Each structure stands twice: as structure tokens, then as C-alpha cells.
Amino acid sequence: MRIGQGFDAHKIKAGEEVVLGGVHIPSNFSIVAHSDGDVITHAVIDAILGAFSLGDLGTHFPSEDESYKDVSSRSLLREVLEKIGDQKISNLDITYIGEEPKISTYVDQIKKNLSEDLNINVDQVSCKATTTDRLGYQGRKEGVSALAIILFE
Asked: Does pTM top 0.85 for this prediction?
């Protein structure tokens, strides 16, 4: 068995939508990033890379590389999955951390997207959200983050 843990955080700015778990969610801000800034998918990628001691997201997809400008994080996830080959995922647990947007109405689609990309059943993906009760950069609405833990059999 292998377990991986991932974390990602990004600044936010005034905008109209964010991408989380591949879902475009209306918001009064957008995420500052070189790619689409999908902190949920980025955390999942880092968890997978960590499980197999393959470094981190920035090592494989550096922000200095213009070929990754505005790229879909779901395509990066699929590329990472090719690197690890045929591995059996037991489960994935994700926590989005931010005051906004509220993701409860989008969780099912986030889980569906990730289960499709990972080729697992949707019930093997847990996605939830929390706030920091207005503490720290998330609480001040300066940024958002996500945590992911993945277990491979």
C-alpha cells in the first residue's frame, strides 16, 4: 500500500469564477495562477506524486514553462496518472479550505470529475469543505487552499 498527501494554496483576486475539481463555479473572485488554479486538483496531483516519491506539481509542471499557461489541471492529473502506470486506488479524501465559494452544490460534480479521471467509483472519492472561521489568509479572503490524501492498494 502507498499513501500520499497533497496541499495547494493560491492567492485570489476580483473575478467571476473559480475552477475546483474541474468544475467552473461562479464566484466574486478568481484564483491567481499560471494554470487554471484548481487547488483541489493540484492537491490531488501532489498526493499522487507523493505516494510514489515523484516530487511535486512544480517539478513536473513548472510555472516558468509557457506550455502550461492556463492549462486545465485535469489534463495535468491525467498526465501524472500516465507516469505511475496501472495502480489501484483505494480512496481519495479532499478538503477545500476557503470562506468562499460555498461548494456544497458542486461536490457531486467534483467527485464525478475526479472519479472519471482516476478511473475509480465515485464512492471512492470524498470531497468536503471548511472555513477557518475568518482566521488566516483564507479567512481574510486573500487565498484558498485544499488538502488531499490518497491511498493506493
From this structure: yes
